[in-house]
Amino acid sequence: MNATRSPIPDRTEAARLEKLRDQLSSDMEAMHQKEASLKEYEQRLRLLIEHTQGSGRPAAPSTQHYHFSNSPGQAELDAEWEKYNRAHALLEAARRGLADDRLALKAREEQVMIREQEVARRESWLKAREQEAAAKAMPAPKPKAKTRTSFAAAAKNLLTGGKSD
Q: Which of 50, 115, 128, 163 has the largest count of CB atoms under 10 Å?
C-alpha cells in the first residue's frame, strides 16, 4: 500500500479554502459598510430626536456632508450645513405634526357627520310625532245643524245684512 497522499485533493482543498476566505473577507467588508451606514443613520435619528424635543445643540456633528479640505471657508460651510440640517429636521417634525393634525381633523369631521345624521333622524322622528299628536288633538269636524228658517226670517236677514236684533 502506498501511504503517500495524492497532491490533487490537497490542491482542490486549498482552492476551496481560498475561495471561502475570499468570500468571508468580502462578506466582512459588506458588513463593515452596513455598520457604518447604520451608525450614520443612527446619528441622524438622534439629531432629529433632539430637534423635536427642543434641545438647543445636537450632541454630535452631522455626517450628511463631507469635508474635502481645510480651506478657510470650510468652517462657514460647515455652519451652513449645520443650519440646513437643523432646518430640515424641523421641517420633518412640522410635517409629521401636520399629518397628525390632519388625521385628528378627519376623525373629528367623521364624528360631526355622524352627529348631524343622528340629529336629522331625531328631527324627522319628532316631526312625525308632532303631526300624529296634532292629528289626534284636532277635534272631529261637527256637522252643521240645519236650521229651518221661514221665508220671512230669510227675507229679514237679507234686508238687514245678516244682523240680528
A: 50
